[in-house]
Amino acid sequence: MKKIVVGLFLLLVSSSIWASPTLSEQAHISLLTYSRTNEVHAMYGHTAVRVKDPVNGFDMIFNYGMFDFSSDDFVYRFVKGETDYILGISNFEYLTIECYMRNMSVEEQIYNLTPKEKQRVFDFLMTNAEPQNRVYRYNFLYDNCATRPRIVIENNVDGKVVYKDSIPTKTFRELIHDCTIGNAWLRFGIDLVLGSPLDQKTTYLEQMFLPKYMEDGYSRAVIIDSAGVVRNLVSPAIQIIPQQTPTDVSENAYTSPTVVGLLVMIFLFAISFLGYKQGRFFWNIDFVLFLIFGLAGLLVFFMTFFSTHPATHPNYLLFVLHPVHLLFAFTLLFPTLRQKITYYHLLNTAVLALFLVLVRFLPQQFPTAMIYLTFALFFRSLFQTLRLLKRN
After folding, report:
1. Burial of 28 (0-12, 13-18, 19+ CB in 10 A)
2. How does pLDDT run across 205-218, given as a tens digit for each residue?
3. CA–CA distance, 348 with 379 (Å, rounded to integer)
4. Separation between Cα atoms, residue 319 and residue 78, nearest integer Å
């Protein structure tokens, strides 16, 4: 979701500054859906709630997608999954300026609410924006800037909101891939650190963690009151802020993770085969390889066992990426210990062979680039193992 740094076109409002006024009959509340951009933090789009009352003279945007980047240990807490987000309030004019600067379009769906429901929703938002209430623990898949507005409406209408399925079921990973078109390396990184739960089929409601899917869901949703009367939840979407130029989402296939992984696999196979034939060890290659795989494994290990982010555990890439590689990488720095690491190559060959045999049966989708890199490491350990067997 669009992560707007606190302070950027922001006017946070507390109860000590604004009391919650009574809305006029001309007031309306609407859902705003921002277009996605090429910025990493905005590739999924964004959602906010607009409350406009021309009689009372305000046009307010309630935004659940804000955070304080300057807070202590922000990066560590973000990786660990303990990021706190904030409900902030800004003026609609700020939204217009921001969208112009970042080349975003905004579509609006006006809620079909009774006067009492409008007031109830507005009072809830104003109370939720008070300093003691506005902070919440962000969860990318289940509790974010898109899901929060949906729950606010569901809990403050007279009746029940009913959604009508319209989109074929996809996995969380497929949904994220759709949003990261144009950034193959970001998609590759996400696939490394998010594990098997990301490949579960989503329900229609779960898909609404993405703003465009919630906009689609709203377009078909209805409110059914206790008397059985049915009304549309929102009016048809209209574009209130146009995008100046189309967003370029093209990718360079020649520098994609898949191509890089394939080239690394071919290179390591060739150099390992050559080393086996000539009796050369190329210890420096082993050091670099184990160092890179070990550092990546350290991140995957942390995300799997210590992060509270959803969908990080289990992650079957731990067969390939794990911190143990680091131990043997630094062992190579000591000439007297280098011969011993050949036995680690034997163990690594067996583990990687098992992974490559099971890869089609594991309940996790792996990027093609990672399969190539796994083969690269496998070939390296295999030829080192063959050298050990030949020597013995």
Report:
1. middle
2. 999 999 999 999 99
3. 10
4. 25
- Identity of residue 352: L
Token couple for 333:
């720095």
| Listed residue (121, 141, 142, 106) closest to 215, CA to CA | 106
The answer to whether 120 and 160 are in contact (CB under 8 A) is no
- Calculate the CA dihedral of residues 373, 377, 379, 384 and round it to 10 degrees: 170
- What element of type H or E holds 280? none
pTM of the complete model: 0.86
Of the candidates 167, 168, 160, the one whose C-alpha atom is nearest the C-alpha of residue 222 is 160
367 token code pair: 């990027």
> What would the two tokens of residue 2 be?
């669009």
What would the two tokens of residue 51 be?
Answer: 């409350």
Distance CA 182, CA 11 (A): 33
DSSP string covering 263-278: HHHHHHHHHHHHHHHH
Q: How many residues does the chain have?
A: 392
Q: Tell me phi and psi for residue 257, to 5 degrees.
A: -55, -35
Quote the longest CA-to-CA distance of the chain.
90
Give start and end residues of each alpha helix (H) in the chain: 74-80, 92-102, 115-128, 147-154, 172-179, 184-193, 211-220, 257-278, 283-305, 324-331, 341-358, 368-391
Q: Is the dihedral of CA 127, 131, 132, 138 positive or negative?
A: positive
User: 234 forms bridges with which residues in the sheet?
Assistant: 111
What helix, strand, coil percent values describe the chain, rounded to 5? 50, 15, 35
User: CB under 8 Å to 75, separation ≥6 — which residues?
Assistant: none
Q: Are 73 and 4 within 8 A, CB to CB?
A: no
- 41, containing H or E segment: none
What whole-number distance in Å separates Cα of residue 63 and Cα of residue 102?
17
**Per-residue pLDDT tens digits for 235-281:** 999 999 887 765 556 677 788 999 999 999 999 999 999 998 888 88
Q: Which pLDDT score, from 0 to 100, does residue 13 have?
A: 40
